[in-house]
């Protein structure tokens, strides 16, 4: 049976957190065995926040190293950098013309930026259309996402359906896949908000580059409550519930199994065992990560392989789209 195609992307806008690891990366190697997988480092998306140039470059290489540290095989998946494949920008402009202003302006993430910032650049508004192009270029069927990105995949589906209806069958309609548990790992200091990767000084976020000592200190100081009973109740016990979610996800067990494990435990025991689990999970990944990160020449070789594979498929799709729209393609 032919494998389905999966597409996933992450922005190099900060150091990956434990939340990012659990949400997508933890099962990524397994997914590359199951699916024809495209794994994109979405550096064009990162431009929306006007990062320092060197930081963007460094973070891009860090993500390549991290993916390799997870055990991804460049021969079994397509690992590449978005800006190195021109088809992403080419398809985005086309899809802008099949996206309604009203539906784009209803995106929750865009509204959040409007509330936070005095001025919002067009890139932030148009971000979901570029994301739709990213996905549709590869005839993607499976898109693993965090809950905060699910709405963008739904917009992508709407755009693809509209294009197919007006122009003819061209794009496959992708399905978002959100992890049933652990889809939103929250900060240790603010357990009602998603763990942030943007502020390295944030003591509520566990970063992939954190030392064992830093990890243990952060978990030890995690906000809980005054009840001293361990059970899962995100509304009334967000801190404890967040720690239980981390423990359950990293140990590949259900929340119910985690609650049963800690039914006689106090908060000190809970934090200690969660810290042990996080440290033991990240240690082997960190060792490989730093090894790969020290060899940029090899990382560039990996990216060259990925670019060639992605460019071949994506360019063919853009040519198909252009031809159907009546755009004159250059003679080969």
SSE blueprint and pairings:
Elements: E1 5-10, H1 18-23, H2 28-34, E2 36-41, H3 43-46, H4 53-69, E3 78-81, H5 87-96, H6 101-105, H7 108-116, H8 122-136, E4 142-144, H9 150-167, E5 175-177, H10 212-220, H11 238-250, H12 255-261, H13 267-293, H14 296-325
Parallel strand pairs: 1-2, 2-3, 4-5
Can you summarize this structure?
With 332 residues, the chain is mainly alpha-helical. It contains 14 helices and 5 strands.
Description:
This protein is mainly alpha-helical and 332 residues long. It is built from 14 helices and 5 strands. A 3-stranded parallel sheet has the order 1-2-3. The radius of gyration is 21 Å and the shape is globular.
Question: Main traits of this protein?
Answer:
single chain, 332 residues, mainly alpha, three-stranded parallel β-sheet, two-stranded parallel ribbon, 14 helices, 5 strands, 53% helix, globular
Please work out how many helical segments DSSP would assign: 14
Could you spell the SSE succession in H and E letters?
Answer: EHHEHHEHHHHEHEHHHHH
Q: What proportion of the residues is helical, as a percent range? A: 40-55%
- Head-to-tail CA distance between termini: 34 Å
Q: What is the overall pLDDT average?
A: 92
Q: What best-fitting shape do the alpha-carbon axes yield?
A: globular
Content-based structural category: mainly alpha
| Strand coverage percent | 5-15%
Low-confidence stretches: none
How many DSSP-defined strands? 5
Tell me the strand order in the biggest sheet.
1-2-3
The major sheet is characterized as: 3 strands, parallel
Cα gyration radius (Å): 21 Å
Characterize the quaternary organization of these chains: single chain
